[in-house]
Amino acid sequence: MSFQPPPYPYERLEGLRALASRHDGGAIDCSIGTPVDAPPSFVVQELAAATGARGYPPSAGTPRYREAAAAWMTRRFGVPAPDLAACVGTKEFVASLAGYLHLRRRERDTVLYPAIAYPTYAMGATLAGLRAVEVPLRDGALDLGAIDPLDAARALVLWSNSPSNPTGRLDDLGAAARWGRDHDVLVASDECYADFTWDDRPRTILEHGVENVLAVHSVSKRSNLAGVRAGFYAGDPAIVAYLRLVRQHAGLMVAAPVQSAVALAYDDDAHVERQRETYHRRLARLAQALATAGVRCPMPQGSFYLWCSREGMDGWQLAEWLAEASALIVSPGELYGPAGSSHVRVAVVQPDDRIELAASRLEESA
User: Residue ranges of the domains in the chain?
Assistant: First the structure.
């Protein structure tokens, strides 16, 4: 039978949009983690200058791009400047990694990923014709001891996501790195929300060495630049070198004007600190209002998502109730795996006045 792609997860929310749109002012869409705040003006100005637009940019990233990303990692995490290369937004990298790794290790055919997770980890395995195997979670972190030894022996890669989308929980990155080395499995650590870590300082798996690990980062969230599609992967020099070459053959390139602008974004931390304050304020306000309305909604350890549940409701029922009560459109947790079916994910990516409007309606419904 030929491959039939499943419906894209967020296209399943049209019924919720209809419910929410009945409110004055329309729907307040907190279903997708698309930044709404302005990116730094100096980055936009550099993007408009179209530096390098006439020629083909280096697939691995210009020296300026790579140097800025490496310097940011040293500044943010205190790690030595790692080997790294550019990617065309990290979703593309997540979706393609397993297929490229399988070309290198054909005897391995399995992708391990968190049981509650961003859907693209599993889809990357599917697109490569490989097995996708969930790893159970314990207190929000990967339960590495629960991985079947037979699956470990077949694994190409273990994905970690910390802070987690959708749960906002932090993983034990040191334990993940050790497990990968013990089982000869690459550990890919998706760290695109690291700047929005609330319960600890930002962490990277590269703090535990670079052997057999990759850290994956993006400017989509930290700098409100999701539309420019730019990120990087860093870590084990041999794996970075392999991926750089195979991706070059595939023609994967971040546009040169984007590379020039993104380098400036990685040079600057002040705009990220301001965004941190904004997201934390929105999280606290909406979590308080949801709790008042009878929704269990603890503050996350990281990310800009609330992971919520309500007694007697599954995720779709809670999403419908929130749309009717407040015009909020949220993502039912089942979109992130069956283990998330009792929850919803709320992305605080609406302006403050819209967050306040939803919060006020929730408090009035209590």
Answer: 9-30+271-365, 54-267
**What's the token pair of residue 190?**
């998706």
CB 332 within 8 A of CB 344: yes
Q: How does 192-214 read in b/e, with b if 16+ C-beta sit within 10 Å? A: bbbbbbbeeeebbbbebebebbb
Report pLDDT digits (tens) over 97-121: 999 999 999 999 999 999 999 999 9
Show contacts of 44-52: CB within 8 Å, 24+ apart: 44/261, 46/257, 46/260, 46/261, 46/264, 47/228, 47/257, 47/258, 47/260, 47/261, 49/257, 49/260, 50/257, 51/256, 51/257, 51/260, 52/256, 52/257, 52/259, 52/260
Cα→Cα distances 103→87, 130, 246, Å? 19, 12, 10
Rounded distance between C-alpha atoms, residue 243 and residue 94, angstroms: 12
Q: What is the pTM of this model?
A: 0.96
User: What is d(CA 352, CA 139) in angstroms, rounded to the nearest whole number?
Assistant: 31
Closest CA to 33 of 335, 288, 259: 335
Q: Is 129 exposed, middle or buried (0-12, 13-18, 19+ CB in 10 A)?
A: exposed
Burial of 290 (0-12, 13-18, 19+ CB in 10 A): buried
Q: Which of these, 303, 312, 316, lies nearest to 347 by C-alpha position?
A: 303
Query: What would the CATH number be for the domain defined by 54-267?
Result: 3.40.640.10
d(CA 84, CA 166): 26
> Both tokens of residue 5?
């792609």
Contact 344, 330 (CB under 8 A): yes
pLDDT in tens, 196-255: 999 999 999 999 999 999 999 999 999 999 999 999 999 999 999 999 999 999 999 999
> How far apart (Å, rounded) are the C-alpha atoms in residues 203 and 331?
27
Fold of 9-30+271-365: Aspartate Aminotransferase, domain 1 (3.90.1150)
